[in-house]
Amino acid sequence: MSYARQYLYHTVSSVAAAVLCGILFYVLRVVLYGRLSHEEFGLFYAAFSFFSILQPLFSFGFDPGLTPNVTQFREARDYRSMKALLLGSLVPQGLVAIALAAQVWVFAGPIAQWALENTAGVFTLRILALHACIVILFKVGQQTLLGLQFIAWRNAADLIRSVVCVGTVVVFLNWGAGLAAVAPAYVLGAVAAIALQFAAILASYRPLLRAPSTWRPDLLRESFSHGKYLSIAFGGVVLFANIDTLMLTLITHDFRGVAAYQVAVPTVTILYTLMMAGAQPFLPMVRTLWLRNERDLLADGLSRMYEAAVALMLPMGVFLACFSDVFMTVLFRGDVLQAPLAFNILAIGSLFFFVTFLNLHVLAGVEAARDACWAIVAALLTNTLLAIPLIWSMGIAGAALSTVLSHGLAAAWTTRSVWRLLTPRIPIRAACASGLLALALGAGCLALRQTSAFESAPLATSLGACVISMILGVSFLEATGLCNLRNLFRVIVSRR
Fold this sequence. Notes:
85% helix, mainly alpha, 496 residues
């Protein structure tokens, strides 16, 4: 099987799982938004953001630093070292997680009073502390399956986690649990996913289980030496929205505003998740090509992904932004406050997020973790500094704008680092043409909002306009030679 075809299979399964998981968690937020008060909804996601910020500390140095090492040991068939690294990594991660989670458990009352200004969050904080410890096992399982390129099993575990979590929330809410229904459901979802991950390794990769268990501090030190940079880089990516949520809470103390932001973020996260699903299978493939010294092939594949991203994502973000208020009002069936404005900003800037996320996987695979680390650190600092005045003056729209600007900085920094190592083609002409096309079609969509068809059937008109515009836009870019999707398809179906 060719590299392109293998990547296609992995990407299709990852995108399918991401779509299903995204839909399930989106349904979860819709259900919670309808069954909880705005204050309870905002309180839970403020607490969840607090632990999302702490989570990288629990697995610092090993998430996602284990994946490149698992791939390397798989290539060398060194199952003993692989098992020693995976089991050994649980020791430092578990100790840190238990120590920090215990502090949160003991001081949940003061934390809830100071950060959330609501003692109703004590139970949620304590259960989320337990969840943070259990997630360590889940993340190690994810990296193991990714490094072994068992992408289907990895995606199945993610899906079962979503199903169990959402199903449990619905059951607990029907029992009248209220806010207390949510955090325990996340714990049960993680436990179910861990069980499936272990079953996958047992069924598909028994040499790893049969290898003797040994304690290898040298492997842990070596993995940590470059893994700490990857932890900062990849952990930082998921911190952007959580930092914004926490800053909104601390600056405004308005849980209705936090609730509105948590309407906008998951809506645009569906778009982000598709991008992440397409990039995640790239890491073990990048690592494999780098170890086999196939640099030209790697650079060519990366160039094609840049072209496809520019052609598809910028127009898509603009189209979604034009009708965001319609989609969110229909889905959430209520007042979504400033959520559409925040969504518009995040959707238009989604291209920066994808380029950053893709580049991080490339830098992780080609042993340039330090460059990835500094890019994300600079972007996070920029996000934090910009968030203070922008949130103060613009509310949740300012939080979204600070995120997009910091994503742009990270995209530029990481692209420069990748270009120094691999020299891929940067699709400047395609970017300019795609930008102009997005502006033109966006203006057309805004004009459509003034018609009687939109007034009589806003949802149907919005969906139809988005689909037709995307088809026309991609067809135009392909016909003018600015987007080579046909060439990419020919490479995929070939067996070379």
